[in-house]
Amino acid sequence: MIHPLDKIQENAKTVGLVSTSPQYEYRAQEVCWDPDRETDSFLDSSEVVGRDDDVSAVMEKLTSLTKQHVLSVVPIVGLAGLGKTTVAKKICEVVREGKQFDVALWACVPNYFSNVKILGAMLQGIDKTTSEQTNLDVILQNLKIGLENKTFFLVLDDVWNEDRGKWDDLKEQLLKISSKNGNAVVVTTRKTVIAGMMETSPGIQHQPGKLSDGECWSIIKQKVSGGGEATLAADLEPIGKDIAKKCGGLPLLAKVLGGTLRGKEKQDELLSVVFMRMDEADSLSRR
After folding, report:
1. Does some domain include residue 114?
2. Tens of pLDDT along 128-147?
C-alpha cells in the first residue's frame, strides 16, 4: 500500500517540483514559468533559511573577479523552486550594506531579453525621478553620467533567452557605461546553457544546494504561523515533519505546503488539502 505522503512526492515529481530527472525538466518550465512575472530586490530576512553558504560563495567569486575585470558575471543556476532569486536578493542586501559596490540595481527579465528594458530599469534605479525611457541612446548617456566614477552591481533575475547575440550586445553596452574595474552582474536562470553563455569564465557559475529536511520543516512552521503565534497542532507535527522530507529540499515547495497547512487541525483535513494542492499542480501540467 502506498503511504499517503508518497503520493505527494509522486505528484510533486509530475509537475517537476521535486524531480531533477531530465524527463520532467520541460514540464517544470511549462508549469512554473510566468511570462509576466516581476520580482524585486527586497527581502524579509526572517524568511531566509539555510542560504548563508550560498551567499558567501557567490560573494567570494565576485570579490575575486572584480579585482581583475571591468565587468564580472556570476550566474546562479538551478531548478525551479530552488531559491535562486532568494539567494540573489540576499546578495543584493549584503552589497547594499557593504562598500564593495557604489550602486546595487535589479532587473527582472523573464519574458524577453530587452536591452532597453534592462538598461531603463538600471537608470530608474539610480534616478528615481526618471520616467520610463524607450530611446536606447538617451538611456546609455544618462547611465554613463549617473555612474561616472562609480561601480555598479546588477542582478538580472530569471533569464530565459538563449540568444548569445542579445547578451553580447548588452555586455558591450554595460562596458560603455563604465570602464572602471569592479562592476558585476549576478544572473539567475534555470538553464545551464544560459549560465555557461553569460559567466565570466568557465565554471564560475554557482548552483545553490537543496535545503535539509530540518530547514524545510522550519519554512513550513513559519508559513503555518503566518508570521504570528499560530502553530500546527501537536499531534500533526510528526506528519508535518514527514511532509518536510517530501519537499526534496526545495524551499518553494516547503512554502507552498506550509501555507496550505495553516489552520488545519485534523490529519485527514491536512492530507486532503495537501493532495488537493498537488492535484491542482498536476492538472495544470496537463493543459
Report:
1. yes
2. 877 777 899 999 999 999 99
